[in-house]
Automatic annotation (TrEMBL):
Record-level GO BP terms: phosphorelay signal transduction system
SUPFAM superfamilies: CheY-like
Origin organism lineage: Bacteria, Bacillati, Actinomycetota, Actinomycetes, Micromonosporales
Positions of the Response regulatory domain: 3-118
Coiled coil residues, start to end: none
GO MF, one annotated term: DNA binding
Listed name of the protein: Response regulatory domain-containing protein
Annotated positions of the 4-aspartylphosphate modification: 52
Keywords attached to this entry: DNA-binding, Phosphoprotein, Transcription, Transcription regulation, Two-component regulatory system
Pfam family, one: Response_reg
Amino acid sequence: MAQILVVDDEPAIRQLLTDVLELEGHEVRVAADGLAAVSAFEALRPDCVVLDIMMPGLDGYGVLRRIRCHDGEPVPVIMLTAAADRESAARAWVDGADYYVAKPFVPDDVLDLLYRLLHEGPVAGEV
């Protein structure tokens, strides 16, 4: 299966996503803030990133821009946010997000998006 980087400052969200993804056979790494996410991304080069937007320090948009600056095949990114609005979604698309998911989310929806990204390729959308 795939190696997934989960980035969220909320421990409960990190644990929920880790549990759900590992049950599906994925290898999961986690980061609790933006700077740790950038370091983890550079060290791991995961198959996909599930990335919260609102975090202390470097937010998800900053992390996404740094991810998109790397050479090679773009890594799919699913953005998560508790502040789902048109402006936030538009900014995520401009910065290169593949999907934008509002919190609270259904874990199976994230699994479905992940499956599509890993098997069918990116198609921008929102849940």
